[in-house]
Design a protein that fits this description.
Layout: E1 8-10, H1 22-31, H2 37-57, E2 63-65, H3 73-81, H4 97-105, E3 115-117, E4 124-126, E5 129-130, H5 142-152, E6 157-162, H6 164-170, E7 172-173, H7 184-201, E8 205-209, H8 219-232, E9 239-243, H9 253-258, E10 263-267, H10 274-281, E11 287-293, H11 303-317, E12 321-325, H12 344-348, H13 353-367, H14 373-388, H15 395-402, H16 415-426, H17 443-453, H18 459-480, H19 497-500, E13 504-507, E14 514-517, E15 520-522, E16 526-532, H20 539-546, E17 554-558, H21 560-565, E18 568-569, H22 575-595, E19 600-604, H23 619-634, E20 642-647, H24 656-661, E21 666-669, E22 700-703, H25 716-727, H26 748-770, E23 775-778, E24 784-787, E25 790-792
Parallel strand pairs: 1-12, 2-6, 5-7, 6-8, 8-9, 9-10, 10-11, 11-12, 16-18, 17-19, 19-20, 20-21, 21-22
Antiparallel strand pairs: 3-4, 13-16, 14-15, 23-24, 24-25
Helix pairs in contact: 1-2, 11-13, 17-18, 22-23, 25-26
Length: about 800
């Protein structure tokens, strides 16, 4: 075949953490002062060069540069453009690496930038802070340094940045009456300068990620694409590939076809139906990049099937056809080759990031007329083996689902009745205090777990070590005065992996790590078959903890939706069916905890909002099956057993009725970084004009009063101020006091200090309420709360 029709292959991004989390460990050493900035920089360069080399060796036509970040790529973009939060007082052009990390983690003077989920993934980005005074005058040169390094290595470079409209959409402006879209001309001017510099460096393509096109955007934002990309057209010699992903953008096909861009990337994995629309409208003189290798799951692609999709496109577009991953490979582990513990059959069904490079290479070679028949035959044998394997299906699980009672997802009585029974049973004080579940996972805990897994210590020795840690956690909580303690989860490696290890239908990797935020990585289980619970999973640990205190011990479980969302889930049946299987397994555990005397049980669902489809038309279906799965897990208990759930940073307004329909007795949510702004959704106020506005959340609420993602210890008055703000929204009789999230990643000194301050703030608030005084926020002195005639200062 003539080279004139040869297609190109590329990835939208590659994982930056390293195959063995080298970046995580280096960054954390830098934070602890154990390595220098130069040593950290060397680790980053080594990883970038390695990943570029892998892309080149696989025969990809570009290496993607700009996907690396020390903490987060959205923060990197803000630092590149010069749009840093003004409250830190940092000069973007002279931003140091320690200052960069202060933006992400906070310092003694400023709380960290807000963090939230990136669309419907489990990756968290840092939210840029905008105002009418924000400037985009340029910042650090790290992006260009990486480009130059890749060029010196002899690579053909494709730069990548968040697109200007997506960057602005993901930011937050708290200035009343001001639209952040008014900043777009300044943002576009900043991007123009970036494109001109890339052109001067000799970069041929820049990938600008605009995933917001998959959302239901306001008309003024849609209209802004035309002017934005016309302004960016023709900036030097660099060509723009506009990249979309995570859902269909078919409704914008005419607009996208008309834009003066060199090419477009669309997601053919999450939204294969959109291919038909673009087949009829896409001009033959523009690049179309088809994302047909899944960037968000680890199942090996059916390469023959993908080739069948690509061949008509190749005939139509020739060399204007590019093939790619559906999105960045940030969301999958790095390299399957190092997984020695997986059996050969299961391993043959999988592809991590490096293996997806090989899949792209095979597809490219096949379409360009090279003989890859042996590789395709091997791929088809693995696909057939997976479809026919007896490991996947369990008739008993199917029979149980088929015979469920229609009331299986309903509690015995309404909330008001349950609330009265629970108050009579537990007799908790006003503003009861608790934590979200985990306590510090010390190096001693991790060492004991590692030794046990290696077979170096006995099960009895490991159990004794974990019981000693639990006893310590319970003793410390009793000393602090926490009303509803937890056992601390010393025995748990991860809130999903721990349960997956004890459920049928799951497999586990050794190095299958994925970045969640900053240096925080998770290792999702591989959910390959029908799910059931062979034995109790937490009952012995919770019962032991309860025996150490007279206070009600809270049992801790992960909910079915979160286990589903935070696993690599089988793709051969509907996700709703898999979720119901998990829900029944968790229901069995809840009932066993209750039978063992555990009267308060938390079923965490931090991923509930994350699972919401990007298209609102699909929300009702998802919320129906996800809410039902949670209720199945929670509804097998008596009225006086109190069910809690926890949710992470999310926008709740538009799904609040669905969250209420989960019918948890108590919900705890992360709110401190938003300064309790997220709590307004639960108040019944009209906040955004979305579906949840005006809806009063009926059950009890525990908004987080301090940020556990930052190492700084908040002062009593800071938390008292947030309690005061919460009391403006939630009646005292329905309000709980707790941190934002679990304390696993924190150290003991900061944990004890922060919890002591939380308890002190709670006591002040209780006394004020008992005296009939109102906690008033002194707006003249931020951080000051006045109650009665007393000023509570730092």
């Amino acid at each position: 075949m003539s080279n004139i029709n040869n297609i190109k292959a590329h990835v939208l991004g590659f994982p930056r953490i390293g195959a063995q989390r080298e970046l995580k460990f280096a960054v954390e050493k830098f934070w602890r002062g154990e390595i220098s900035e130069g040593e950290l920089a060397q680790v980053g360069q080594t990883l970038r060069r390695r990943h570029w080399a892998w892309q080149a060796e696989a025969g990809l036509d570009f290496v993607t540069v700009g996907d690396f970040a020390w903490y987060d790529q959205i923060l990197n973009t803000a630092a590149l453009l010069g749009a840093l939060p003004a409250r830190f007082g940092f000069d973007a052009k002279r931003l140091s690496l320690p200052q960069y990390f202060e933006l992400a983690r906070g310092n003694t003077e400023q709380f960290a930038m807000e963090m939230t989920k990136y669309f419907d993934t489990n990756y968290h980005y840092l939210v840029p802070e905008m105002s009418s005074k924000t400037t985009f005058d340029g910042g650090v040169e790290w992006f260009f340094d990486e480009i130059e390094d890749a060029l010196t290595q002899g690579h053909q470079v494709k730069a990548v940045l968040p697109g200007p409209l997506t960057f602005l959409w993901l930011s937050k402006c708290k200035e009343e009456g001001y639209s952040k879209l008014a900043l777009l001309p300044s943002v576009v001017a900043a991007y123009t300068r970036v494109l001109n510099k890339l052109s001067a460096l000799g970069v041929s393509y820049i990938q600008l990620d605009e995933p917001i096109l998959a959302l239901q955007l306001p008309n003024d934002w849609i209209a802004a694409f035309e002017s934005t990309y016309r302004s960016l057209a023709g900036q030097g010699s660099v060509k723009v590939l506009l990249a979309t992903y995570f859902d269909s953008v078919a409704e914008h096909a005419p607009l996208l076809a008309s834009l003066p861009i060199a090419g477009l990337h669309i997601d053919g994995v999450r939204a294969p139906e959109q291919l038909a629309t673009f087949a009829t409208i896409w001009p033959e003189n523009k690049v179309l990049s088809l994302g047909l290798i899944d960037g968000r799951n680890i199942w090996a692609a059916d390469l023959s099937k993908v080739l069948g999709i690509l061949q008509p496109w190749h005939s139509k577009l020739g060399a204007q056809l590019w093939i790619a991953t559906s999105c960045s490979l940030l969301h999958v582990p790095v390299d399957l080759a190092q997984e020695a513990s997986l059996d050969a059959e299961l391993k043959s069904w999988l592809a991590f990031a490096k293996q997806k490079l090989a899949e792209l290479s095979i597809l490219k070679q096949a379409l360009n007329g090279q003989d890859v028949s042996a590789e395709l035959e091997k791929n088809q044998d693995a696909q057939h083996a997976r479809r026919t394997s007896k490991r996947i299906h369990n008739p008993a699980v199917a029979a149980r689902l088929a015979n469920l009672n229609q009331q299986v997802d309903q509690r015995k009585s309404p909330f008001a009745t349950r609330q009265a029974d629970q108050r009579a049973r537990f007799n908790l004080p006003l503003l009861p205090t608790t934590t979200i579940g985990s306590f510090p996972q010390t190096k001693e805990i991790r060492a004991a777990r590692a030794a046990f897994k290696r077979g170096e210590v006995s099960a009895e020795h490991y159990e004794a070590a974990m019981k000693a840690e639990i006893a310590l956690v319970v003793q410390k909580q009793d000393a602090l005065g926490i009303d509803v303690p937890v056992h601390g989860e010393a025995e748990r490696n991860d809130m999903v992996e721990y349960f997956g290890e004890q459920l049928a239908g799951f497999a586990f990797t050794q190095f299958g790590w994925v970045q969640s935020y900053g240096s925080r990585c998770v290792k999702p289980p591989v959910l390959f078959g029908d799910v059931s619970r062979p034995n109790p999973m937490t009952v012995a640990w919770s019962s032991f903890a309860q025996s150490l205190t007279a206070k009600p011990m809270k049992g801790m479980l992960t909910g079915p939706v979160t286990i589903l969302q935070w696993s690599f889930v089988r793709d051969d049946q509907p996700r709703s069916l898999t979720c119901d299987q998990i829900a029944l397994a968790i229901r069995d555990e809840v009932c066993d905890l209750e039978a063992a005397g555990i009267g308060i049980i938390q079923i965490d669902e931090p991923a509930f909002r994350e699972g919401l489809p990007l298209k609102q038309a699909y929300w009702a279906h998802y919320l129906a099956w996800a809410g039902r799965a949670f209720r199945i897990s929670a509804s097998g208990v008596a009225n006086d057993t109190q069910i809690h759930t926890h949710m992470c940073y999310s926008e709740f307004n538009d799904i609040l009725p669905a969250i209420a329909a989960m019918d948890a007795d108590v919900i705890t949510i992360e709110t401190s970084r938003s300064d309790m702004e997220l709590l307004e959704a639960f108040s019944g106020k009209t906040v955004t004009g979305k579906a949840g506005d005006g809806f009063v959340y009926p059950n009890e609420i525990g908004p987080g009063v301090y940020d556990i993602h930052s190492p700084r210890v908040p002062q009593v008055n800071e938390m008292l101020r947030l309690i005061a703000k919460a009391l403006e929204v939630v009646p005292a009789e329905r309000l709980w006091i707790n941190p934002d999230c679990g304390l696993k990643t924190r150290g003991w000194p900061e944990t004890e200090s922060a919890l002591a301050n939380m308890l002190a703030a709670t006591q002040i608030a209780r006394r004020a309420i008992e005296r009939g005084e109102q906690l008033l926020i002194d707006t003249a002195k931020p951080g000051t709360v006045v109650h009665g005639s007393t000023c509570v200062c730092h």
